[in-house]
Amino acid sequence: MIRSDVQLMLDVKAGDQQSFELLLQRYRTPLVNFLYRMVRSRERAEDLAQEVFLRVYRAREDYEPSAKFTTWLFRIATNLALNSVRDHRYEKLEISMDAPIVADAEDGEERMMEVADEHPDIEQHLVDEVRKKMIRHAIEKLPEKQRAAVLLHKYQELDYAEISKILQCSESALKSLLFRAYETLRVELAPLVAQSVKH
Amino acid sequence: MSCERMEGRILAYVDGRLKESERAEMDKHLAGCAACHLRVNEFRAVTGLLDELPVIEPSGAFNARVHALVAAEPQKRSGWLAWFMLSPRVAFAASMLLLLAVWLGSIQRPGPQIDAQDLPVVENADYDVISSFAPLSDLSQAPDTDSNDSDTAQPQPQQM
Questions:
Q1: In angstroms, how far is the first alpha carbon of chain A from the final one?
Q2: Taking 50 as the threshold, does the pLDDT of residue B137 lie above it?
Q3: Which 3 state secondary structure label does DSSP give B149?
Q4: Hey, are the CB atoms on A193 and B54 less than 8 Å from each other?
Q5: Other CB atoms closer than 10 Å to residue B154's CB: what's the count?
Q6: Is A125 part of any domain?
Q7: pLDDT digits (tens, 9 = 90+) for B64-92
Q8: Tell me, what's the pLDDT at A24?
Q9: DSSP category for residue A118
Q10: Domain that residue A40 falls in
Q11: Residues A63 and A123 in one domain
Q12: CA distance to partner chain A, nearest, from residue B50 (Å)
């Protein structure tokens, strides 16, 4: 029988290390992806995700299942991500102004030139990579809170009530935030959107 | 339903999170409004594009690093010490109170400063108020000042 997140956390509270291991397995990939899309650095995303798990572990003795576990978990992650984005804002600007213009090959997510030989249809591969790059940049350009809302809504599939608790705003404010974010994405990705709508 | 009102529900409609009655109302509006119909399709396209981003896997050392962080955490303490250690504010407040108590205890309150010359001089330490109390009947006679204190006696006028 699969134990719920809350049950696992209560078991961790009771001293069961194995339950912590299960929570780690269950949430390490969603957390790292969420944080990676928030901070745009794989290394920093992993550091932050580790910090999230550490904070969960530290708080085990005071844990009370008053809210959904994911709300609590992503609230910790969102706060850490927003702080990290703010802390590295100027550093990022400095890098982007000084960095030479090269193909997007950061963090190992995609290295177009390196994989060229592995793909028989290199042209299609390059087109796909350009699409992904456009999508990533459109997300990256969103204001931090809108970005967090979209990521929690789209990739974690959390409901409005849960996301509004994570972002500490009302549900109606969240709906407005999400609408503005998707509107911005619609405009930013207009060429790709137009292609999709045609098909 | 107006186009403006539709905007507030478009995302929930695309997500399939609207109530049945709200969804029916949206369908009715979309059937007669090409602009809103296009917008719904564009929102669907945006969510589809977001699905194209690949999911990344944490590095191989991820779990090991979390385990190392957790292992480095101080062990659980028991009893009042744990409570004390886990509450740095309480510990600080208790330390301050202790320091304050020690400081207050060390202060000796000085009494009023009295010079020795200001103290009353007790000339006859053996004098007992009760036993030496003279009866009222004795008060009719004037005390013999000459015999008691010649220094304080008024000078007698010289008889011519």
A1: 44
A2: yes
A3: coil
A4: no
A5: 6
A6: yes
A7: 999 999 999 887 655 555 555 556 677 78
A8: 97
A9: G
A10: 1-100
A11: no
A12: 7
Interface probe with B: pick from A17, A112, A132, A179, most Cβ of B within 10 Å: A179
pLDDT in tens, B111-132: 556 666 666 655 565 666 666 6
Question: Quick check: is A105 in a domain?
Answer: no
A61 and A124 assigned to the same domain: no
Flag whether A109 is in a domain. Answer: no
B2 pLDDT above the threshold of 90: no
Cβ distance of B42 and A186 shorter than 8 Å: yes
- CATH code (residue A47): 1.10.1740.10
Chain A contacts of B62, Cβ < 8 Å?
A: 28, 32, 46, 49-50
Go through chain B and tell me how many residues it has. 160
Do A118 and A190 lie in a common domain? Answer: yes
Residue type, B92: F
Predicted ipTM of the assembly: 0.82
Give the CA count within 13 Å in the CB-facing half-sphere of B46. Answer: 28
The total number of structural domains in chain A stands at 2
- Measure CB to CB from residue B49 to each of A24, A160, A196 and give the nearest one: A196
**pLDDT-above-90 percentage for chain A:** 71
pLDDT of residue A188: 96
| Maximal CA-CA distance, chain B | 151
**A93/A119 same-domain check:** no
